[in-house]
Amino acid sequence: MVAAPGLRGLWVDAFGPGLRTPAEVAQTVSDAAGMGFNTLFVQTVRRGDCLCLQASVPVAADVQPGFDPLAEVIRLAHARHLRVIAWVSVTGAWNASLPSAGAAQVFALHGPDARDSWLSRRPDGSWKSGADAWLDPGIPAAADHMVRSAVSVVKNYDVDGLQLDRIRYPDGGDWGYSPVTLARYRQETGATGTPAPADERWKAWKREQVTALTRRVALEARAARPGVILSAATIVYGNGPADLTAFRATRTYSEVLQDWPAWMREGLLDVNVLMNYKRDGVNGQESWFDHWNAFAGQQRSGTAEVAAGTSMYLNSPEVTAAQAARALTGGLGWVGYAYRTPTSEVYAQRQTQAQGLAALRGVLGSVMTAEGGSGGAVVWTPTPSARRAVLGRVVGTLRVGGLRVDAFAADGSPLGSTVTDGNGYYGFTDLPAGTAEVRVGGQRWSEPLVLGVTRFPNLLLRTLRAGN
Q1: Which of 149, 443, 446, 468 is the most buried (most CB within 10 A)?
Q2: Are residues 173 and 268 in the same domain?
């Protein structure tokens, strides 16, 4: 019997029917509610375009003119007591299969041929990763754009949460070779020449750019909408590690440069949704699935939650139900990918979507309801986090990225250290009540903290002391 309360979510992607017209949205919400899901992860910012009208990026070209998919999802889902998490592809810039959103799309403005291109590149200058182009977190202007895109959704829509997807570098490990990124790396570290992809110092620096981007989005979003649920769709390739030492040997940490355990420890995430896309019965992948779930569960901090995201499109409905049950009985939530392709038969085009949804509905049973199927739908009630955080910025005529910032309590005891991003932003989360002081480059500022995000004034640096 599966009676564990918690998240039962459904990813709704925007690469096919589901969100583009009022009829599609109505069907999507009806199907999800009818199957017992309590949360929709709705693709919103896709590849530099939006399935919405009120964001800082242009409207997707394949949306019915004048229609606002996100607003309609929220209206219908909230009426059915479903939460709506806006799913944002943070570094997404372009996909070959999608129509252009026009001259305002980031790829049109800062694509491969632009003087100020924002794309992540390989050492040879190439920028395509399969059918996609990615923005580089190491380019300050690109990072500003990515933060603004995500936060504009939170500011303008009554979403319950924000999910950060593609908050990393592309697969392969040989990315980040934009001239701007390389120049920043050399300036901030004193390195010379062009680092090799396997250079550990280079990888650590890029990993920090990803974490800094995550930190700023999280704090800006929480400042814009207190109580918003911050989530990330995180990478869990291969077999799960036993501990943090083993994690640092995984592709997650060493290749795509995503240190999500650190994000959890720092309090940047309220819900970590693992993209735990494994196939039971294939090369022992069921144990890989369980190992990642167990490891992620060990990384929880405070009220943060973990959910296993499963690949419904790679599995039979029976396997999907079994994986969901294992996650839930293990104390995690569950999110299925995806509404458009709910079974492997639908993905292989041997079954219609409606047939796949019906087959899935038939086996989920007690997974989707309380008390073994007799207690009705499960309500997910995330525990609100009583967080105190600081968001500030260093400005000046000298470099503002890569500067160490220290935080102290009123009695002088240290609260933590971080480094500024390429735009000079820094932040601290989960601070104790009282007054916090930040120190950087000989400058300092103290401020009493309130629940939520306290914005510190800009700190002007004209000179840097040794060691900064």
Answers
A1: 149
A2: yes
